Amino acid sequence: MTSEGDLRLQRLSHPPVGHFEGKGVWVTGASQGLGEALAKYFAAQGARLVISARREGELERVKASCVGKWAPQDITVLPFDLTSSHEVLRSAVETAWEALGGIDYVINNAGEHIQMRPRTAASNTT
């Protein structure tokens, strides 16, 4: 079973022009990398956006760099940490819902960066 919000429906093709026009999209992890790129993509497609991450300054930078029908003026910056308490998360959802007048898509891109150390020849021996 799928729904309009199920991105699996998009498969490998691009959605039709105007598909995201006026849709409410909440992107977490939007302060850099893939989340930032997704925020810019959805803004350019005419979506109404809420962008979230822990670093408000970086979110403001992303907001200012977005271009679209609703961007940057109507993008809502909603800084919070996904590891916060249940009450904080509930409040964030309510804020995003109110800002967008309903949420059509959530792109849950937030994650934790883990620095990987390269393996050395010495660590490969038994």
Automatic annotation (TrEMBL):
Signal peptide: none annotated. Pfam families: adh_short. Transmembrane segments: none annotated. InterPro entries: NAD(P)-bd_dom_sf, SDR_fam. It comes from the Eukaryota. This is SDR family NAD(P)-dependent oxidoreductase. It comes from Ostreobium quekettii.
